[in-house]
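User: Working on a comparison across species. This one is Putative GCN5-related N-acetyltransferase from Actinoplanes friuliensis DSM 7358. Can you predict its structure so I can line it up against the others?
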Amino acid sequence: MSVELRPITQENLRAVTKLEVRPEQSDFVAPNAVSIAETYVYPKAEPRAVYSGDELVGFVLFHPLDSDSRGHGIVRLMIDHRFQGQGLGRAALEEAVAFAVREHNAQRVRLSVVPANEKARGLYSSAGFVETGEIDHGEVVMVREI
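Assistant: Here's the predicted structure for Putative GCN5-related N-acetyltransferase from Actinoplanes friuliensis DSM 7358:
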């Protein structure tokens, strides 16, 4: 399964803001509209729509790591509830890592996860992310060295 990360545009903005996780996952990730709004406060943030072919399936938000010039951060990653369970989350994660390396020469990718989000923690661990022992705003920090 392959995915592509595309910029948020006038054409896809509303559709991206309508993407939602399952109700029981709503405490694990901020709504996409909030994430996109944050890009005005954090101008270095980069929102991307996740597409599988021509189908919009998810969203990812990147932030540079100010304290680590070799690293880049994945702040949000979500797959719409209609497309979960199809391998798209793993594909989106791998494409997000590839984006950080390709576009920002990242040697380290950092993300954080709500401790109760066992599925995401398992996915990140299986993709080579390691828990650092650090807690950031109540979330477990994980890093993948490239």
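For your comparison, note: Residues 4-108 form a domain with the Aminopeptidase fold (CATH 3.40.630.30).

User: Helpful, thanks.
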